[in-house]
Amino acid sequence: MRLTTKGRFAVTAMIDVAMHGGGGPVTLAAVSARQRISLSYLEQLFGKLRRSGLVDSVRGPGGGYNLAKAPDQVSVAEIITAVDEPIDATQCGGRENCHDDRRCMTHDLWAGLNDHIFSFLSGVTLAHLVQQQQQKADVAVMKDHRQPPGGSTAPKVPVSETV
Amino acid sequence: MRLTTKGRFAVTAMIDVAMHGGGGPVTLAAVSARQRISLSYLEQLFGKLRRSGLVDSVRGPGGGYNLAKAPDQVSVAEIITAVDEPIDATQCGGRENCHDDRRCMTHDLWAGLNDHIFSFLSGVTLAHLVQQQQQKADVAVMKDHRQPPGGSTAPKVPVSETV
DNA sequence: GTTTAGTTGACTAAAACGTTCGGGTATAGG
DNA sequence: CCTATACCCGAACGTTTTAGTCAACTAAAC
Asked: pTM score, two decimals?
């Protein structure tokens, strides 16, 4: 499980689709405009998301992308692994013939850590993030109006509960 | 918090130092040979680890690196952030002036997720990983030749044991 | 049949990754 | 002293990944 901006873009775009998908498919052009992500880059990402079964596409005018599953059935881990193919941190490529005195510790080590990060991110669904985002929007509306970007750090909203 | 092989190499190397640091400093040449990581790359990584206060260096013959803190006081999160400088997934660079209808959700979103991943990795210490590694070595010895010494240590490792 | 919008592939500049090289400086041992 | 060891530093390199662009295509709505 790699963790880069690529996966984050994908999650951001998926949240956008989840939040704007009420009235039919969401076009990538709209996502691109709202999230300031290059349209062609989004096309690449959504190609993978579609092939991974996370979104459905509708072609032609009025088309776009829909979530293939309910927002509470789509985890962050799924999205990230869909667009961010995993890398191998072990030199042995998963085999155990890498060392003489002891087998390389890298393999089990990162398999274990990976498992934990993965299961954590599997517990965070789109529904969680959408809810958090809407909650924040409410707060913003409430305290908006000529409020300059003062140094008030945003309140840390818990993303999920226990895994 | 980025998660690449770079940080994993650093953690692997730190585990190596923790496990072989009993009799004085550990040379990077030894780590390089054991972990199959390029010596010069290790030098770069340990330069950052040293500047971050995670290791102490001893120059000259017989020198090498020691852990600056006890293994149970060094978390994986510290190691990774020491060598893997964070990236910014927000186009606004942390400012909030990025959008018209709503502020870009990327910022708080990933701040929250980052917090969770970070706090998780902060709970995993070098001591945990060393213990897990030694435990695995014991099992290997048991499967190899003869009876292992004494009772098996309690597996209170927060890292899962299987793939 | 034109327009919309997904689909695909090739291509590119920039960044990051991992490595190699070539030089330094401090120190232990002879 | 000298020399070997091993940390220290920075530059350069080739590769991969990012992020984006461009072009051509297909399906569907009007």
From this structure: 0.79
Cα(A90)–Cα(A25) distance, integer angstroms = 41
Is the CB of residue B30 less than 8 Å away from at least one CB of chain A?
Answer: no
Nearest by Cα to B59 from B28, B81, B83, B37:
B28
Within 8 A of B136 by CB-CB distance, chain A residues are 105, 108
Three-state DSSP class for residue A136: helix
Q: CA of A62 to nearest chain B CA: how many angstroms apart? A: 23
B104-162 pLDDT, tens digit each: 666 666 777 778 778 888 988 999 888 887 776 677 666 555 443 433 333 334 444 33
What letter would DSSP give residue B68? S
Tokens read off for A103:
């087998």
Asked if A90 and A98 count as a contact pair (C-beta separation under 8 A), the reply is yes
SS3 of residue B61 by DSSP: coil
Nearest beta carbon to residue A112 from set B106, B108, B160: B160
The per-residue pLDDT of chain A, averaged, comes to 77
CB spacing of B1 vs A3 below 8 angstroms = yes
Measure B12 CA to nearest chain A CA, in Å.
6
